[in-house]
Design a protein that fits this description.
With 188 residues, the protein is mainly alpha-helical. It is 60% helix and 2% strand. A two-stranded antiparallel ribbon has the order 1-2. The longest helix has 24 residues. The chain is globular. The chain starts with a helix and ends in a 5-residue tail after the last helix.
Length: 188
């Protein structure tokens, strides 16, 4: 469960790498975090090294990889898994970072850094993400996530080294792109 900007940047890197030009792929990368609670099947299902992580095998069986929204959803859960089971375990190692939302201060800094580095157009992203309303999302969660994009901060992080994280995000995006390539033939 990296920051919202992390999911968007991952989607952008993968889109460029696989020549995906569909906003539904971007929206799908946010969907797991904003879907209505009554429709939500938690995407953190199995015990990882320190945290509950997504059951990737479950999603491989249930999602339609030719549907860009669902492909984005799959990308989201893969990034969550790599983040929780690899990045945090190897670089942070603190199983209490989610207590009292301690790590979310770092997410504000990460969002700001990613928005700047990858030149994310926040107004365009907001319009794109607001179309998720048609997908049965929790309006408050959606608005909260969008607001989080606009509330980036510049200060030192407490847990996450920004350069390490940026490298992780970039490398993991290519790892996910390879996984996706092995699952479908993308229509151009």
């Amino acid at each position: 469960m990296p920051s919202i900007a992390s999911h968007i940047v991952t989607a952008k890197i993968i889109s460029k790498n696989l020549d995906i030009n569909d906003d539904n792929f971007i929206r799908g990368n946010i969907l797991p975090d904003v879907i209505s609670r009554d429709k939500r099947k938690t995407h953190h299902r199995i015990n990882g090294k320190l945290f509950l992580v997504p059951d990737i095998d479950y999603f491989k069986k249930t999602l339609d990889f030719n549907n860009m929204l669902e492909l984005g959803y799959y990308t989201h859960v893969l990034l969550d898994k790599y983040y929780l089971d690899d990045f945090l375990v190897n670089n942070v190692g603190n199983s209490n970072i989610f207590n009292n939302f301690a790590i979310y201060s770092d997410y504000s800094v990460i969002n700001d850094m990613l928005i700047e580095k990858y030149k994310l157009d926040l107004k365009k992203l907001e319009r794109t993400l607001l179309l998720l309303r048609k997908e049965g999302v929790d309006e408050n969660l959606l608005k909260m996530n969008i607001a989080f994009l606009f509330n980036g901060q510049k200060h030192d992080t407490l847990y996450i080294d920004l350069e390490q994280y940026d490298r992780f995000l970039y490398d993991t995006s290519f790892k996910i792109a390879q996984d996706i390539k092995s699952r479908l033939i993308l229509k151009k």
